[in-house]
Amino acid sequence: MWSNKTLLLGLLGAAMFGQANAATYDEIKARGEMVIAVYRDYPPFSFRRGEELVGIDVDIAKAVAGRLKLKPVFREQTAGESVSDDLRNAVWKGHYLDHTVADIMLHIPVDREFMQRNSEAYIFAPYYRDMVAVTVDSEQIPHFSGLDVFLEKKVGVELGTLADQYLLTIHDGHLINNVVHYRSVDKAITGMIGTEVAGVMGSRSEIEDSLAKSGRKFAVTPMTLPGIFNGEWVIGMAVKNNNHQLANEVEDAVDELIKDGTIPTIFKSAGLSYVPSYEKQK
To answer: Which pTM does this prediction carry?
Structure first.
């Protein structure tokens, strides 16, 4: 996802106004509302269905706000050039147009190196683990045993993604002629159903979402990516770095929602497998 974002300029506000003031947990409780940033146009996690904002992250945010007895107020965040830009605009400095911040943002990578680079934000509450996966048309590939099959069969992939980079480099580049690029995983799945390609590689969440929307059932196989590529990533939330009381309350709510099955059910209702984060598995 994050490698496919478009550029959003925010330097003017940063230079003129510095960091925005984030509301404390007591202030949030007093007003009875929690402002929650989610990504705009990012199905199945947050997107518009007609006029209604829906998606997995939206449902999780509503459930968390409900546990805290707060009204969720959503702020749709346009993806920037990087997730670091998104954190700056959403939770600790504010967008250059209005200089306001959300109380919390969802769908942030929980990664030690990334967290160290973004010390102005506090990243916490891992709630899901996504990964690179492959699905194949069982009529074209009756027995999928690994990526070697794409030395002979064509594989669809979204242009510019981690899966794309990996397929173009493995086997000394011998897969290149069989890699077919699409604008999205949805388009790649459509291509597989139309037999343009025999399989699709991408994030598990996007593949499962696309298959659910297509009404077709194909097996989805998680893939390890040996070498320099990391084929799995944990997803959590973020607040401004000094807002630890809010983070503690939200993390407790997320833990409860995982334990009582609310968050797993949200994923399953959307047609996705629920894979807990490494932290929650321990």
So the answer is: 0.87
